[in-house]
UniProtKB/TrEMBL annotation:
Signal peptide: none annotated. It comes from Cellulomonas triticagri. CDD domains: ACS. The modification N6-acetyllysine is found at residue 628. Residues 548-628 form the AMP-binding enzyme C-terminal domain. GO terms for molecular function: acetate-CoA ligase activity; AMP binding; ATP binding; metal ion binding. Transmembrane segments: none annotated. This is Acetyl-coenzyme A synthetase. CoA binds at residues 207-210, 328, 540.
Length: 666
């Protein structure tokens, strides 16, 4: 398949139908006076940052981080689009996240309240974390990991995951965390792409009440060819289940970490030293290894975590429900909160195990005061009913955050009323794996919030909505979201593929960053995000590529051709709907059997999160004369709408054929 290297907005350009009501929302929620008074930042922060953007970020970098060697230059943009922030400074991320809090006398402060799905708990103070991270860093060094080497991490959400990431950071070994729900195939390609010599995993983790194995998936991944690059697999015992074992290669965490020395000097690294690689779906079949560096990333992670959530590290209990397999877990479970010295909750399992009040029970138990979660979770809770959270004391909550996709005003107002007791600010935070940290969001003590809108670029951030010619649209207009100035936590590239980095983000509009999101400005100039304009879907706040799922489908022997669209879904935001043309002999088996087999195949290829909700067997796909699939028309079918303008199809009867086939009794 020929792939256009520069993602042009496609026929998915029109805002998703379910989101139109966003723009009719006119309720306002200004912060109450008491909250505004005690807030970390006030309205002046915008004028300060806007009058001297670089000076603002330099001040934040100095105030929020400890530097082993100070920086003198703030931003070097001469190599654009690859930015260098604070480049002549040196620092260590793990030292900033852990040691310095102990040195400042806060070693007894709880860093992590861990809640396992089965109900087991562990509490780690900053002093505990320092010992564990130092031991793990020594163990990794003993396994041959040096500064600059990549380490793959494939773990459930347990304390060792945070420890492993920080241990990598401590020695300057960029980590590549692969979400535990991804398949062996996905893990294999990520190990190869990053050339990771060590994989850190666990025997398994708890999910929906059962011990679900991870280690066999690692073995399967290595059997696909990555065994040549991987020298060691470091295995945490979490569930106690039996694991396949390769002598010499596999080592138990408790054998090598628990016995290691607690003394380890963090390595002072250049501010531009790569901190991590995180793969995310793009518009082609191959995931992009987005990589972030140290000084700028930590600066923006810490600033946004402190000020978007109004964090008071001494008193707040913070909880972000994301898994560390996603960027939200990197920035708002690991680096932001720990650099700020916060106390936080991490929870291994699903929200409904063993009952639908589990999250609210956790909020009550730990006195959670700041909660950061995704619209899909909020909508799921809405479905379960407000009597579930009503059974728990949620009065400790004082700030609520949302991330991952546009939040519909109904979910926003429900979140504030039912979870926030009609009292808490709600911050809708827009950002991406690529941006590294929050970019557009209200500030809870400053902004009069509008349900459904992320509203305002943060201080020191320059965003706009532009038309096809890169011209800013007037208030009331719609177009593409762009970022017009470099920001500290911006991605520094796609691992091993600088050309793709330039093509994907910097070629649509010369010199400015193309985010891939459609957006509108309302009459006040506030920004409303309207979903992706490229072939990327957002399912439960997770990014999935239509092309990647199509490739997985056509790799099945029964499938001749496939087209995938994201259809609006009440709970998950979008859902994967696949249209497939079967090969001659496969067409004989029942559509139900075929669909079951294909869904399992996609789960094996990518992971269960990519499984199509619906698979429709069709005789043809709608294509333009140049052979491009018109997904817009398929989305109309998937969303049970009248099919839109089909006049540019090569064969205009195709849509009739598809619909007749679908209407026919099975
Ligand atoms: C895409 C980035 C950022 C962490 C989670 C997802 C969508 C994210 C919002 C929001 C509207 C949002 C965008 C963006 N998105 N947050 N508050 N309002 N849309 O990270 O997997 O890199 O996905 O998620 O479409 O481009 P990601």
């Amino acid at each position: 398949m020929a792939l256009d290297p520069a993602p042009r907005p496609t026929d998915q350009d029109a805002p998703r139908p379910g989101l139109e009501n966003l723009l009719q929302e006119d309720r306002r929620f200004p912060p109450d006076a008491a909250f505004a008074d005690q807030a970390n930042v006030h309205a002046e922060v915008y004028s300060w940052a806007n009058s001297d953007r670089l000076g603002f970020w330099a001040d934040q970098a100095r105030a929020l981080l400890d530097w082993a060697a100070p920086f003198h230059e703030v931003l070097d943009w001469t190599g654009a689009p690859v930015a260098r922030w604070f480049a002549d400074g040196r620092l260590n991320a793990a030292y900033n996240a852990v040691d310095r809090h102990v040195e400042a006398g806060n070693g007894d402060r709880v860093a992590l309240h861990f809640e396992g799905e089965p109900g087991d708990t562990r509490t780690l103070t900053y002093a505990d974390l320092q010992r564990e991270v130092a031991k793990a860093a020594n163990a990794l060094t003993a396994l041959g990991v040096g500064t600059g080497d990549r380490v793959a991490i494939y773990l459930p959400l347990i304390p060792e995951t945070v420890i492993a990431m920080l241990a990598c950071a401590r020695i300057g070994a960029p980590h590549s965390v692969v979400f535990g729900g991804f398949s062996a195939e996905a893990l294999h390609t990520r190990i190869l792409d990053a050339d990771a010599h060590v994989v850190i995993t666990a025997d398994g983790g708890y999910r929906r009440g059962t011990a679900s194995a991870l280690k066999p998936t690692v073995d399967e991944a290595l059997s696909k060819g990555s065994a040549d690059v991987v020298r060691h697999v470091l295995v945490v015992r979490r569930t106690g289940q039996d694991v396949p074992w390769t002598e010499g290669r596999d080592v138990w965490w408790h054998d090598v970490v628990d016995t290691a020395s607690e003394q380890h000097d963090p390595v002072p690294l250049e501010a531009e030293h790569p901190l991590f690689i995180l793969y995310t779906s793009g518009t082609t079949g191959k995931p992009k290894g987005i990589f972030h560096t140290t000084g700028g990333y930590l600066t923006q992670a810490a600033w946004t975590h402190r000020n978007v959530f109004d964090l008071k590290p001494e008193t707040d209990v913070y909880w972000c429900t994301a898994d560390v397999g996603w960027v939200t877990g990197h920035t708002y479970v690991v680096y932001g909160p720990l650099v700020n010295g916060a106390t936080q909750v991490i929870y291994e399992g699903t929200p409904d195990t063993p009952h639908r009040g589990r999250w609210w029970e956790i909020v009550q138990k730990y006195g959670v005061s700041i909660l950061y979660t995704a619209p899909t979770a909020i909508r799921t809770c809405m479905k379960w009913g407000e009597d579930v959270p009503a059974e728990f004391d949620l009065s400790s909550l004082r700030v609520l955050g949302s991330v991952g996709e546009p939040i519909n005003p109904e979910a926003w107002t429900w979140y504030r009323r039912v979870i926030g007791g009609d009292r808490t600010p709600v911050v809708d935070t827009w950002w991406q794996t690529e941006t590294g940290a929050i970019m557009i969001s209200p500030l809870p003590g400053v902004t009069a919030a509008k349900p459904g809108s992320a509203q305002t670029p943060l201080p020191g951030i320059a965003a706009d909505v532009v038309d096809d010619d890169a011209k800013p649209v007037p208030d009331g207009g719609g177009g593409y979201l762009v970022l017009t100035e470099p920001w500290p936590s911006m991605l520094r590239g796609i691992w091993g593929d600088e050309q793709r980095f330039r093509d994907t983000y910097w070629s649509r509009f010369a010199g400015i960053y193309f985010a891939g999101d459609g957006a509108k400005k309302d009459d006040d100039g506030d920004i409303w995000l309207l979903g992706r304009v490229d072939d990327v879907m957002n399912v439960s706040g997770h990014r999935l590529s239509t092309t990647e799922i199509e490739s997985a489908l056509v790799s099945h022997p029964s499938v001749a051709e496939a087209a995938v669209v994201g259809a609006t879904d009440d709970t998950t935001g979008q859902a994967v709907v696949a249209f497939v043309i079967l090969r001659g002999d496969a067409a004989a088996s029942s559509p139900e059997e075929t669909a079951t087999e294909l869904r399992a195949h996609v789960a094996r290829q990518i992971g269960p999160i990519a499984k199509p909700r619906t698979i429709l067997v069709v005789p043809e796909l709608p294509k333009t004369r140049s052979g491009k699939i018109m997904r817009r028309l398929l989305r109309d079918v998937a969303e049970h709408r009248e099919v839109g303008d089909a006049t540019t199809l090569a064969d205009s009867s195709v849509m009739d054929l598809i619909q007749q086939g679908l209407a026919a009794p099975k």
